Amino acid sequence: MKIFTKMYDACLRWARHQYAVYILGFISFIESIFFPIPTAVMLAPMALAKPNRALWLAFIAATTSVLGGVVAYIIGAFAFESWVLPWIIELGYESTYNRALDWFAEYGVWVVLVAGFSPVPYKMFTLTAGALGMAFVPFLIASIIARSAQFFLIGGLVKWGGEQMEHKLRQYVEWIGWGVLILGVLAYIIYTVSN
């Protein structure tokens, strides 16, 4: 049974939907605040479905993600204790939040640059930056750089690879899917054992 191939084909169908761009923007926006599924999960198949629009889709994802990050910063600044912290505790993200605090203490607001590629969700950095009262302009600049780098990397690779990449990816999607799943489980086990 080809689980990942079926999921991949479904994502490509959804990516061709007439409202897919709006859905991408919405998911990218809410992912910066609270949504658990990364934007890249939708961006990659959308870009593969329309490689000629890959960079435009990356721009949409980056822009809406940064706007969501600004909203999360404001929420963190004004409602962290009353709304965000109970949510972090209830969902079991305390260790992730503490790691974000440690990184902020060590690197300052520029840790947001790393957030674009780290396993710690971007939303944790946006909310925490607001809660800690980090300088807004450096936060905004770091967010623009981090989110643009991640999404334009995906869009650029798809545009460069074009249809050939889509066919190759579909050919190896089962191997890739199971490999990522196994790596994720191993990373979780290593992280749990080390803490």
UniProtKB/TrEMBL annotation:
Keyword Repeat among UniProt keywords: no
Pfam family, one: VTT_dom
PANTHER family: ALKALINE PHOSPHATASE LIKE PROTEIN, DEDA FAMILY PROTEIN
Domain VTT: 50-154
Name of the featured protein: Lipoprotein B
Keyword Chaperone (UniProt): no
Keywords carried by this UniProt record: Lipoprotein, Membrane, Transmembrane, Transmembrane helix
Lineage: Bacteria, Pseudomonadati, Pseudomonadota, Gammaproteobacteria, Kangiellales
GO cellular component: plasma membrane
Residues passing through the membrane, by range: 20-43, 55-80, 100-120, 132-155, 175-193
